[in-house]
Structure formats: structure tokens, C-alpha cells
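Objective 1.3, modelling of assemblies. Example input:
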Amino acid sequence: MKKTLLRVRESRQFGDYGLFRLEGEFEPSMPGQFYMLKGDWGYTPLLARPISIMTEDRHTVSFLVKIVGEGSRKLTEVNAGDSMTAVGPLGNHFPFEEVKKGDNVLMIGGGVGVPPLYYLSEKLVEREILPVFCQGARSRNDILLLEELRALSVEPLISTEDGSSGTKGLITDIAKERIGKADFVFACGPKGMLVAVSKLVDGKTRAYFSLEERMACGFGICLGCACGIKHDDGETRYDRVCVEGPIFEAGKIVWD
Amino acid sequence: MGLDLSVEIGGLKFKNPVILASGCAGYGLEFEDFFDISLAGGVSLKGLSVKGSGGTHPPRIWETPAGLINAIGLQNIGIDAFIRDKAPRLRKIDTVFIANFYGHRIEEYTEAGVMLDQEECVDALEMNISCPNISEGGIQFGVNPPLVYKVVSACRKAIKKPLWVKLSPSSDIRETAKAAVEGGADALTVINTIPAMAVDVEKIEFRIHNRVGGLSGPAIHPIAVRMVNDACQTVKAPVIGCGGVEKAEDGIEFMLLGATAFQVGTALFRNPLAPVEIIEGLEKYLERHGFSSMNEIIGKLHNGNDKPRSCS
Ligand SMILES: Cc1cc2nc3c(=O)[nH]c(=O)nc-3n(C[C@H](O)[C@H](O)[C@H](O)COP(=O)(O)OP(=O)(O)OC[C@H]3O[C@@H](n4cnc5c(N)ncnc54)[C@H](O)[C@@H]3O)c2cc1C
Ligand SMILES: Cc1cc2nc3c(=O)[nH]c(=O)nc-3n(C[C@H](O)[C@H](O)[C@H](O)COP(=O)(O)O)c2cc1C
Ligand code: FES
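Predicted structure (C-alpha cells):
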């Protein structure tokens, strides 16, 4: 990880979202890792924002952000040529190296949990492993990266809460019977979704969830991003989502 | 050319007055990826206690305008683990390490202090007295001058190395500064975070699980400046300014009012290179004003003009 100044190569907005590509010198990343991003906007907001890597090539790294407050709004408003401070890549990654050809891989993504799973899909498809990709959204306007996933030959199974696309209902409705058959489950999305999915995972499936927690630093010094994790010694301790995570084994996460 | 950034605090020499603040610099090693930590004047380590602490339930942080509220619950690995796992690497790094420590009883303070006093990598100790005192019904040590005197003098007797006391902004800083120095403090760090609260009005719940947290960052800087001034006007012991330093000029403010050095906390989160940039900024400032050393600016604003101002 390091701190670098990257330049916005391109940026586009759609609905409540913004997608931007940064160029400059950065270290190669793994799917599931993130950056702490901040533009040149002084003290408002004060802190950088954690954003997952959506994809990356040798020269550019891309992000997809949903506007939920001031920081995310400012991130989506950047223009080509603007500079952005990036600290990263940070955190651990989805253990995609452990997936073997022929394994049944299920991705469960809700909202802005989709971008890191897209990056993971790219890495798996490179190794000729085609995941099943379930995506849950509030409505059709919140379905993300559909064309990009199709370009990888991954045809997402969609659920929307208002029924405007795919199956009407929650993502667990479409993922339920597939979870039992999966060798690997990779999930990222709102906490409510992850809790619901965790209840469907049994001990046989290797399930990894990417967690979100508020972060001040992103590299392990503030201890602000704590999450209760069951350790092998049987004790529950607060781990840092930014260093020991954001990816944790589903069975070890303490929900509350 | 030939600028001298060094300062001295109670016999300890610092390369420059830029000290990383406790709780914002981990155990010092986390910055290795960003810059050579030995460039910093000093590092105040994450607050340690004898047994360690698991910390508070999340959510622990909330951002406010130009500020950050945190309730980490002084999570730390405990002094034994610190000495075993962290200290050996710190011993090889050429900067001043200040061991920040706390307790909930006077005996816990002295026990922690003695353990850290014996560790080679520790050059000075910094008492965090903004903790609830269990023996006295949970009131903070740091807000009550007689209690400040009691806990500081107990530690002073038990510890050989320089002892700094970090004052609580919830106190009358002149009174607690006096009490700490009478108790034997070699230097004062002014200030710790300011107790604060925030509410999510949509979910109708507290933003932070612990409800109360400590406010830090640029939002508290002017308050820290006033308190540093008050402390410098009241006691002769060296004062280390702390609170909302983002750039060199913020630290210089403290020093012009009499602080010998300053600490950088929250700024490290958004900019892990802040110490390096601040050191560069100090050099530029000295050049710009034709000074040749940091020592020249200490207390400059009061020299020949130290009439105390009444408050409004
Ligand atoms: C490892 C990680 C990866 C992430 N990846 C992405 C991504 O790829 N795309 C994306 O759009 N978002 C992502 N997020 C979430 C994003 O960081 C937050 O939405 C953003 O920080 C909100 O900032 P804001 O100033 O817009 O909102 P604020 O005004 O700070 O908050 C608005 C609301 O969002 C909640 N919130 C704030 N910070 C977080 C957080 N870190 N996690 C969850 N909720 C939060 C607040 O509680 C509040 O209710 C990620 C978060 C983490 C921890
Ligand atoms: C996340 C966090 C953790 C902190 N932990 C400690 C601590 O363990 N001991 C201590 O004395 N001060 C602690 N502080 C207070 C800082 O050292 C500093 O006094 C305060 O944040 C004001 O400075 P700043 O505005 O530059 O951050 C902590 C502050 C923050 C933000
Ligand atoms: S965000 Fe600071 S330790 Fe994780």
C-alpha cells in the first residue's frame, strides 16, 4: 500500500451513481481490496472514503460509487483531469486462488457490493471458472454492471424489490437453493443482506463475506472499523475491517 | 540553510517538534509503508494499560464538520504484549518514543508506568488522565485538580524517565496544569479530545454505540490554541500543543504561544504523510521569516508582552 496522487481519466454519472477511472502510479491489487479516496476538497468532508476496486489494468483503476452522503457525492462529481488522493490498495482479498476449475462458485451482490464481485468474476473468468452471479437491487435503475458482466459471459440472476426487473423479491429468494450446491459463496452488500445469507450457509460451503464499517484511516491505526470476529482459540475479538478484513469467513462474523 | 528544527523537552532532544499523537499512530510501525518514521520528532504510542482492553462496541467513529468523534475504548494489546511483540522493532528506530498509558485506579497508573519505565525503547511516558476513576465513582481523574496532583505524584515517585501529563479539555486547564506540575510532571500535553455526541435523526439513534466520544480534528484547533496559551501562561514546564494540527502553521500557532513542540493526530488518518509535509512546512516558515531555529519562535507572541488577558 502507499499514498499516491492519481488523475481522473474519465468519469460518468448515472442516476445515484458515479463511475470513474483513475490513472497514475499504483500498486497492483487483488479483488476485494479497496482504496481510501479523497479529492481536493479541504475539510469537507475531512476524511477519505473507502471504495472497493471495481477493476484495474496496468495503467488505470476504476471505481463505482453510490451517492449516500457528502463524501460519496463529491467522489461522483469529479471530472477528467482532476486529481485524487488514493491510499491503497488496502485490506485482504477474496481467496480466489483457492477456487479450482470445476468448482461451483456463487456470488451474491447487493447494491455497491457488486463492483468488487465484478472484479472477482474477472479474475475467475481469466482462469476459465464461470461463477453464478446473483444480484439484488431495489429497482431496475440500481442494477449495476450488467453489460460488463455479460461481456465476461456471466449472466446475472436478478431480483428487485419492486419487481421492475428479474424476480420480484429479495436476493435470498433467488440465491437460496443455489447456496447449498455451491463450493464457494462470495457475498458483498448491505448488512441486512449478509445476515440473511449467513443463515442459509451451512458448514460445507466455504463462504466469504466482505464487510463495510465506517473508517477513519483504512490502514489500521485508528481502530475505528472494529467488527467482532470469532477466532480459532474460541474467543471473540474486535478485528479491524480495514486490515484483517474486509473479507471474513462467514461463520466467524459476530452479527448484532 | 543550516536551519535547526530541533527542540528539547525536559532534557530529551527531538529532531523536530513534530510528534505523532497517541491513538493516531498505532504502535509506530504502521507507517513504515508511507515514510521513514525516524524522520518524525517523536511518536506517542497508542495508550497502553497493564491488562490491555478489547475496546468498545461499534460503531466507534463518526465524522462531523471538520472533526471526528471517536469512542475506541482505549483498545490496546496490554503492556506485556507490547514489550514482547512491538518494542524490539521500536528499539532500532531512531526517534523519541513516548509511551502513552492509563488506568482506572491510581495503582493501575503506577503499575503501568513502572512496567513501561523499564522498557528500553520508551524515552518518556505520557499519562492519559481523561479516564474514569473507578475508586472515586467514575469521575475523570483529569477534571479534578487534587486528583490530578495525587495520580501524577504517585507516578512521579514510581517512574524514573520523563513524565508527561496529557490534560483533559473538560478541566480548567490552568488549575489542572498547575496540579500536574506540582505533582512532578516534566511536560504537559494540551489537549486530549473533547467529549462530544451526535445523533442520527432518521434512524433516531446515537451515531456512536458508546453515545459519548471524543472530538478531534481541525474543529477543535482554536480551543486547543486557547488552552495551550493558558497552560503556557500558568506553568513553566514545557507544553506540547495538540488538537487539529493539519499543517505546519497550525503547529506554529501553538509554538508562538509558548509550546515547545506539538502533536499531530487525526490529520494522519486522511494523510499518512502529514508529518513529512509539516516538517517541510516548518522549514519554509523559518526561511520565510528569517529565523534560523525553531527555538526562536517558542513563545514569540508573548515575549515582552505577557500580560494575561481576561476572558470575555
Ligand atoms: C471496504 C469498503 C468498501 C466500500 N466500497 C464501496 C464501493 O465500491 N462503492 C460505494 O459506493 N461505496 C462503498 N463503500 C461505502 C462507502 O465507503 C460509504 O458509502 C461512504 O463512505 C459514505 O460516505 P458519505 O460521506 O457519502 O456518507 P456519510 O454522510 O458519511 O454517511 C451516509 C450514510 O452512510 C453510512 N456510512 C458511512 N460510511 C460508511 C461505510 N464505510 N460503510 C457503510 N456505511 C457507511 C452512514 O452511517 C450514513 O448513514 C465501501 C465501504 C467499505 C468499508
Ligand atoms: C481514534 C483516536 C484514538 C485516540 N487514542 C488516544 C489514546 O489512546 N490516548 C490518548 O492519550 N489520546 C488518544 N487520542 C487523542 C489524540 O492523541 C489527540 O489528543 C486528539 O485527537 C487531538 O488531536 P488531533 O485533533 O490532532 O487528533 C485519540 C484520538 C483519536 C482520534
Ligand atoms: S479504519 Fe482505521 S483501523 Fe480500520
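Residues A 34, 45, 49-52, 64-66, 68-72, 112, 115, 212-215, 246; B 63 surround flavin-adenine dinucleotide (ligand 1) (CB under 6 Å).
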